[in-house]
Amino acid sequence: MQRRVVYSSRLLPLLFVAPQVAICLIFFYWPAGQAVQQSLFLEDPFGGFSEFVGLENFTQLFGQKEYVESFVRSMIYGTLVSVISLSVALLLAVATMRVARTSGRFYQTLILWPYAVAPAIAGVMWMYVFHPTIGVLGKEMVLAGWGWNYILKGDQAFGLVVFAAAWKQISYNFIFFLAGLQAIPKSLIEAAAIDGAGPFKRFRDIVFPLLSPTGFFLLVVNIVYAFFETFGVIHAVTRGGPAKSTEILVYKVYHDGVVGLDIGGSAAQSVVLMVLVIGLTVVQFKYVERKVHY
Questions:
Q1: What is the pTM of this model?
Q2: Which of 64, 90, 131, 150 would you label with 29, given CA atoms 20 to 30 Å apart?
């Protein structure tokens, strides 16, 4: 029998939710509203004048070849970061579940450590590892004749920031995948094994479907992470270069707004980025969630 909680005052429930509502209003809705407002104006960066131009900032935006290339690059970047981090995290979680309990705790601790590293620090760390002149691995790759130089070669720089961003997110995904695997009843796995199902068939037909709610949640989180939270990695490693080969949408917003002082254009870019991420999230909930087994 469920009991319904009855508060003595109608204001008490409002007080409980007030901190969360205040945080959303101050740190999300108010900045989002400011971005939408600024995207409709042509503004002097020093506050001298402000002229209403309507959707002109948006029309100019999609007329720029650089922005379209950044848009496509962001889609590829987000897909690669999400797929790599989710796949590796799931593989590590499954491998950790197979080892002994004492060894498993040791491996869990090692895998969880990168979660405490800030994105900018992760970028700096991998930059010094793969730097072509002072990097531990980078200079060895140069001496081996591999032609490694991410400072000058855009494809190598793009691969490095994808690797660094995915590495940073693996620990987060690992936590949830491990918790999801531990929540699956062992009796189901043992029954399938008795029926003659091999390890791969047990994982495909039992473990993966039961793990789909966790995977769906992480898919949404990783898409948001790739589009918004990897700014620090890119800024620390490549600063959008070389030749803007690693300039994704979130970094272009910073570069055009802070460096280029194009307030209206960067605001329009931030609105497009926000709509894009919201749209991707809606698509995931509408189509991907249908295949989730709760």
A1: 0.85
A2: 64
